[in-house]
Amino acid sequence: MPTGAIPTDTLPGGIDLYATLESGQSYLWRREDGRMYEDAPDGQPWYCTVIDGEALRVRQTGRAIEWESSGAAEETVRTLLRLDDDLPAIFEAAPDDPLVTEAYDYARGLRLVDDPAFPTLIAFICSQQMRVARIHSMVTTLAREYGDAIEFEGRTYHAFPTPTQLAAATEAELRDLGLGYRAPYVVRTAEMVADGDAHPRDADGLPYEEAREELTQFVGVGDKVADCVLLFSLGYLEAVPLDTWIKTAVADYYPECDRGNYLETSRAIRAAFGGGYAGYVQTYVFHYLRTREEL
DNA sequence: CGCCAGGCCTTAC
DNA sequence: GTAAGGCATGGC
Questions:
Q1: C6 C1' – A160 CA distance, angstroms?
Q2: Packed helices A262-272 and A244-253: angle between N→C axes, nearest 10 degrees
């Protein structure tokens, strides 16, 4: 059984695993104590996922990121959690204003994730008009109902369904699982990928705004969901998803960036957030605004 | 009860 | 190209 421990002091800027995995950017991990999003972890809980058919769990101890897997290697952990990102350099590129400073101080060590493209696409199709905990619940349900089961260390894990597995679901089934009006979006997008008509990875490598446009071909995907896939899965760290929280931040802190439409407002806030790492700033600000009063 | 949540689709101008 | 409705569900 592959296991390992990655010393925290070897990671530039350290890491806050809790903030990284419970900030609403990834919906593909589950906290083993079952209290995800309810409370800050009491102790050092394992977070579990399935990646490329292998069970993987990680936890943060006082001095390391420990991991255990049925077959994944350390490189996978480093990739998924973006452990090589240079957080001090990223902070250095961020604007020096009160909101951003507070957001960074609130969750130092939060790292972006690098999740697989298809699950991320579906998760954020499900995300519209939903709260973070319910999105996570919906993704967990899809894995349980349609994904492969994997036994590891006496526990059963469920992979997120493949495009083919999810395309075999019906709209009625997904409505019964609580997806509401997103059900046909999920089925139709899964069919597009399963049939080979398109894949979210096809956007990878295109210039940022072209990549975003490419992703909107999927049913249920507009500019905002496309930005989430670009940021959390395809490595476009400049992407700034304009959700309700960030729109509030724009109105309250950067009113000059509101240009009346997504494209131009996106360009303005991306510049205000420092350009190339604007998506990092966005994720810190989102996490701060959404949870600062709730813990 | 009404309001809101990591919005998008369709239709009408 | 932009604006308005409609849309499911659950928590508060």
A1: 30
A2: 60
